[in-house]
Amino acid sequence: MDFAKAAHAFQEYLKDYDQNNDKVKLKIVHTYGVVRQAEEVCRRKNLGPEDTELAKIIALLHDIGRFEQLKQFDSFEPSTMDHAAYGVKILFQESMIRRFLNEDQWDDIIRTAIAKHSDFILEDVSDPRTLLHAKLIRDADKLDNFRVKLEDDFMTFMGITEEETGTLKISPGIYETVFRNSTILSSDRITKMDYWVSYIVHIFDLNFRESMDIVAENNYIQRLIQRVPYSDPDTARKMQEIQKHAENYVMEFQESPFL
Questions:
Q1: Coil, helix or strand for 66?
Q2: How far apart are CA 62 and CA 56, in angstroms?
Q3: What gap in Å lies between CA 45 and CA 102, rounded to an integer?
Q4: Could you tell me where the DSSP H helices lie in 21-104?
Q5: Does the pLDDT of residue 258 top 80, yes or no?
Q6: 146, 173: one domain
Q7: pLDDT tens by residue, 50-77
Q8: pLDDT tens digit string along 110-138?
Q9: 10 Å Cβ neighbour count for 49?
């Protein structure tokens, strides 16, 4: 495996897309952020060089389908395109994977990890090494997504401002889902506040203590919640309760003897 070769091929692939588009730029930066997070989780887990390199290549390619989605629809909405399925199609059905990787011995792991990286629940993976990498990419993706939602232009990924978001209500079903320690189905979101809450509760889908340590070290929960000024009093109260619940979950996860 040669990550440098894969990264060069990725830059060539991006030439077909408008890299001045804010959404495209966001996804390019996100891709390399996921690579860094994957490498960091591997380091903390003391994984070997081969698994680390494999995790980085999966991270590099995990969102390759997003760029065509943005080109066709200018949208991240899952209703416009299943970007994971499209990524698997162009990589493996159209053999694009060989641009990034000469060897085929890791193809099954890469295919499964990319195909399942945005599934609501990770299931139906029995091979231990494939499961490891499927979990790694899901964690690395969410860890950089926290950075995106904290640092990037709010209008680019939300379509409205922080101030406008803070005037809105959290739907009752979304609020209740948080306290079941569950992530939120895209199709269940109604208001833009629902979207905002759904990004924060990605913590409930993290797999590794090392990933949760990164969340705690960066104080992501508090910082994310404080990014939006909640002018609606009911929303402000509920977000305080969500913050307390989420921070307790992080602490309990870190302290669990079974991880």
A1: helix
A2: 10
A3: 27
A4: 22-44, 49-61, 66-73, 83-88, 97-100
A5: no
A6: no
A7: 999 999 999 999 989 888 888 888 888 8
A8: 999 999 998 888 999 999 999 999 999 99
A9: 9
Helical H segments across 90-183, by residue range: 97-100, 107-115, 128-151, 154-158, 162-165, 172-178
Distance CA 168, CA 241 (A): 16
Same domain? For 4 and 104 the reply is yes
Residues 156-209 have pLDDT tens digits of: 999 999 999 999 999 999 999 999 999 999 999 999 999 999 999 999 999 999
For the record, the structure tokens of 147 come out as 């950075």
Q: Are residues 39 and 113 in the same domain?
A: yes
Q: How many CA atoms lie within 13 A of 46 on its CB side?
A: 0
Give CA–CA dist 45/207, Å, rounded: 12
| CA within 13 Å, CB half, 75 | 8
Are 69 and 80 in contact by the 8 Å Cβ rule? The answer is yes
> Has residue 247 got a pLDDT over 90?
yes
Question: Is the four-CA dihedral 72, 78, 84, 85 of positive or negative sign?
Answer: negative
Rounded to 5°, the CA angle 34-200-41 comes to 30
Residue ranges making up the domain that contains 94: 1-152
Residues 75, 239, 23, CA angle at the centre, nearest 5°? 15
Structure tokens, 19: 């890299």
| CATH assignment at residue 57 | 1.10.3210
User: What is the Cα Rg of the chain in Å?
Assistant: 18
First to last CA, the chain: 30
**How many domains does one find in the chain?**
2
